[in-house]
Amino acid sequence: MYRIGQEEKDAVARVIDSKELFKVNGGAQETYHFEEELKAYFHTDHTILMTSGKAALISALIGMGVGPGDEVIIPAYTYIATAIAVVAVGAIPIIAEIDDSLMIDPADVERKITERTKVILPVHMQGYPCNMDAITAIAKKHNLMVLEDACQAVGTSYHGKFVGTIGNAGAFSFNYFKIISAGEGGALLTNSRQIFEKALIHHDSSAIAYFGNQMEDFSVEPFCGTEYRANEITAAILREQLKKLDGIVHDLHKNKRLLCEAIGCKANLIPCNDPDGESAMVCTMRFETAEEALRFSEAVSGVTLPIKTGKHVYSNWDVIMGKRGAAHPLMDPFKMPANRVPDYSPDMCAASLERLAKCAHFSINPDWTEADIEKRAAEIRRGLEI
Predict the structure, then answer these.
(1) Region label for 340, one of left (φ > 0), alpha (ψ between -120 and 50) or beta (otherwise)
(2) Distances (CA, A) of 161 to 64, 121, 129, 158, 166
(3) Could you identify which of 7, 163, 219, 357 might form a hypothetical disulfide with 290, taking C-beta atoms 3.0 to 4.6 angstroms apart as the criterion?
(4) Which of 118, 178, 198, 256 is catalytic?
(5) At what angle do helices 6-18 and 232-263 cross, to 10 degrees?
(6) Residue 313: Cβ-neighbour burial (10 angstroms; 0-12, 13-18, 19+)
(7) Known catalytic residue: 178?
(8) What is the pLDDT of residues 194-227, one digit of tens each?
C-alpha cells in the first residue's frame, strides 16, 4: 500500500453512516459504482469486485470452462496462488520457464502446449509486463485462451494497453502489498459476456439470483459455485484508491528514473518488455553470478533476492510439487482419471532458478524526496562496489 488517508476514512464513514454495508442496496451502491469506474478506467466491458486476486483467477477459469482433463500453462516465477487457482477448478498447472525479463518465456510456453492445454496464464510480476504480443500470437495459433494474472500489476501497461485487459480475461489484487489496496480484495476484468456470466455466478452462486437483478438477461443457467462476494466498505476504499492510481504510477516512474540516473552506469537492469508501461514498483538488477547477487543483498538494506522469496518460486510450492490438490482424494485433480499428472521436480525449470538467483529486487517509493533518492543511490553504489 502506497497512499491512504482522509479520503478513505471519509469513504468508510460514509458507508457506516448509511448502514448499507451489503453490496446490493438502495443507498450509495459503492460496489456497483466501483465496478463501473473500474470498467471505465481500464476500458473493459465487464468487471467483478471479489475478495481476492486468487478468487478472480478461479472465477475466470470457471468462466473459461476449465476443468478436469485440462492443462493451464503458468510461469515458474509467480505466487503459489496462481498454481492453486488452476488446481481449484480441477485442472493441472503446467510450469513453464521464465526468460531474462523474469516473465513467462513464450518459447517455452509453446514447447509445453499439448492437446490438453486450454489456457495460457502469464503473470505480470512486480509490475513488469509480460511479452503479450508473443503470448497472444501463440494462443491464436493454437486456439487457446489467455488469462492474465495482473495481481501485482494494477496500472501496468503493455504497448499502450493495460495488462489484465489484453487476454480473454484478467485478474487484479487489492491486498495490502499491491499498488492500490483495501487490505484485501480482487477483481476480474473481461470483454467476454460468457466468461463474465459464469464468473459472476461462481463467485456468489448462493446469492446472485436472490438479491437485486444481477442475473438480468443472463444466458448461463445458475450452478453451484462459491462465495467471493465483496462488501461496501472494501468498494468505498477502492473508489478512492482508484483515483490515486495515476499519481502513484507517475511518481513511481519518476523516482525509478531518478534513482537509476543517480546510480549511474553500474546499474545493470533486467530487460523489460515495455519500459514505458511498467508500473516501476521495483528496480531489478542482474549480476554475473548468484554469489554477486547475494553479496549485494547482504550489503544493501531492503534488497530482495527473487530466488529467496519462498512461495513465489515453483520449487517451493510444496502442495503442488507434492501433488496434494485437495483435502478429499476424490476432489484432488492430481488423482482424477481425466487428468494427465506431470512429473514435477525441484529442478524441472533449472534455467528459471538460475536467472532468479542472479537477480536482486529493491522497491521504489513514490513519495521519496530528492534527498531520499540520493541517499538510496549512494547506498546502492557502495553495495555494487563490494
Answers:
(1) beta
(2) 22, 18, 11, 5, 7
(3) 357
(4) 178
(5) 170
(6) buried
(7) yes
(8) 999 999 999 999 888 788 888 889 999 999 999 9
Amino acid identity of residue 382, one-letter, is R
Phi/psi of residue 174, nearest 5 degrees: -125, 30
How far does CA 140 lie from the centroid of its chain?
Answer: 22
For the domain with range 6-242, which CATH number is right: 2.170.150.70, 3.40.640.10, 3.40.50.720, 3.40.309.10?
3.40.640.10
* 0.85 exceeded by pTM: yes
Q: Is 220 within 8 Å of 197 (Cβ atoms)? A: yes
pLDDT in tens, 41-84: 999 999 999 999 999 999 999 999 999 999 999 999 999 999 99
Low-confidence ranges of the chain (pLDDT < 70): 266, 386
Chain-centre distance for alpha carbon 22:
26
Q: Which residue in 173, 132, 166 sits closest to 152, CA to CA? A: 173
- 225 SS3 class: coil
Query: Is 360 strand, coil or helix?
Result: strand
**What ranges do the domains of the chain cover?**
6-242
From the list 363, 359, 380, the residue with the least C-alpha distance to 308 is 359
Q: Which three cell numbers stand for residue 371?
A: 534527498
- Taking the CA of residue 255 as centre, how many other CA atoms within 13 Å lie in the half-sphere pointing to its CB? 26
DSSP-assigned beta bridge partners for residue 110: none
The three-state secondary structure class of 189 is strand
**Residue 50: closest CA among 123, 128, 151:** 151
